[in-house]
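Sync notes, pocket subgroup
Present: LS, DG
LS reminded everyone that the earlier model was apo-only. Rerun requested with adenosine-5'-triphosphate included. Inputs:
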Amino acid sequence: MTAGIEVRGLTKRHPGARPDRPALQDIDLEIPHRRFVSLIGPSGCGKSTLLRILAGLEGHDTGSVSLLGESPRRASRRKAIGLVSQTPALLPWLTVRANVALPGKVNRRSGKEVDPPDELLRAVGLEDAADQYPHQLSGGMLQRVAVARAFALRPDVLLMDEPFSALDEFTREALQYQLLGLWQRRATTVVFVTHSVREAVVLSDEIVVMSARPGRVHEVLDVDLPRPRDKDIVKGPHMHDLEDRVRASLQRAWKAGAAPDDLVPL
Ligand SMILES: Nc1ncnc2c1ncn2[C@@H]1O[C@H](COP(=O)(O)OP(=O)(O)OP(=O)(O)O)[C@@H](O)[C@H]1O
Ligand SMILES: [Mg+2]
C-alpha cells in the first residue's frame, strides 16, 4: 500500500508549557493512503495540535512525520494538503464565492486542477449564499464554506478539525454523506477530528482514540462496516456494537489521562 501518513515517536511541547506536560507524547500513527481515519479524545488531548503539525503549520520536538513520503511543509507547499481548522478562517472582505475560489486563484501557476466554486458551494448546500460576506453567515454556514474551500484544490490529504460541530443533525448527516462521496471520488486520505462517536463510526475506516495529559494514542479501533455506508448499514446492530466499543475505549482513555485541573466540582 502507498505510504500515506507516518508519524513515529512524535513529541510536542508548546512554548511555555510545563516540561512534564507535553501536548503530545510518543505518538505513533500509520495511515495508508486513501484511508479515512478519525481522531477522538478528551478536550485538550492534542487533536488540533496533531492536525496542525500534519498540516505543516507547527513544528514538533522529537520524532518524525511524513505525508506521502515528504515532510508536512513540503507537502503543504505543493498544495497536497487541505485543512479545515476548528475555527473557520475566511477573508471578511471577500464574498463566499470569492473565498472558495481563492485557493485556485492563488495557485493558478501550480497547474493543479480546481473545482468551480459554485459547484463546491452547491455540494455544501450554500449556492444561495455565494454573494454574501462571512459576517452575514451563521457559524454552521461558515464551517460549510471552509469545507468547500478545502476541497477546491483537490488535496491528496484532507485534515478536518471538527468541521461539522456547529451544524444541526440533518445538515450534519447530509454533509457526512457528501464528504464520503467526495472522499471516494477523489482518492483522498482524510484525518477527521470529532467529539461525536457516531460520526466517527459512520465515516471512518479506523478510529484513533486519544488520552490526555500528555496526549497519547490510547487505542486504534477498526471500523469493519461495509461501504458505501448506506442508511441500512448505519442503522444496523453492528453499528451500535461499534459505537459501544468506541465509547468504552474513550472511557478507559479518560481514566488513563490525569484528571483535568480545570474540572473541579462546583
Ligand atoms: N499555541 C499554544 N500554546 C501553548 N499551549 C497550547 C497551544 N495550543 C494548544 N496548547 C495546549 O496543548 C494542549 C492540546 O491542545 P489542542 O488544542 O491540541 O487540544 P484538542 O484535543 O484539539 O482539544 P479540543 O477537543 O478542546 O479542541 C492543551 O493543553 C492546550 O492548552
Ligand atoms: Mg481542538
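DG: Residues 237-256 form the longest helix (20 residues).
LS: Strands lie at 5-12, 24-31, 36-40, 62-67, 81-84, 157-161, 189-193, 206-211, 216-222.
Action: DG to write up.
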